[in-house]
Amino acid sequence: MPTLDEIFTQIETDKAVRIALPIIGTTEKKRISCVYQRTNPPEFILLFTPGSLPVDEIDMNRKAAVLLDIKGQNISLAADIQEKITDQALRLVAWEVIRHEQLRDYFRVDVSAPLVARPALTKDQEWSMSGETVDVSGSGLLAIFNRPVDQGEPVRVELILPTGNAEPIEAVAHVVRSRKIDENQYQIALHFDTIDSEDRDRIMACCFEIQRKHLRLKVQVKNPE
Question: I need a labelling partner for 153 at 20 to 30 A (CA). Which of 25, 142, 213, 224 fits?
Fold first, then answer.
């Protein structure tokens, strides 16, 4: 794995990157495309399109994760947010290269994929419901279903990823939270408790592929004054 110094010698200014930004009052991170500006490594500035940066919601006491693509390789950096320069710019300081096994705890990727959930334990009343993911990581997922599930309840999920082979991924997870967002629509967060290591690797490979597509997109920003 490259060191911080090696990474900063290879990052070009004006390079499109993605940030997982900590938000006050939630463990979820907001993922935003932005542009890297070189200053004094490991310090750097990220520029955002107008209106994309939730300035008042940023949790300055927690670390952000920045994902970039260097010569086709996904690199992730853990960084402290030092300053909100403007409503379109942040100053950060990188302090660690995130290892592959840590990525599932840092990044959730916007993924729309079909899944089915069933009770993991035998019950008198069996149920099954189909849904669609909102985002996915190596440690869990967020999905939309047409009925709620109690917090803490163990469920068995079957997920078909939009990339790679169509073989379903099966895992046992528990409900972290469940909230109603519309009539007959519930947003349910699931944390994987039991999942095959190969299936977790398939999820991470899918996340990497989708992140690379995000990073290839041109990001239009204005320089901060």
Answer: 25
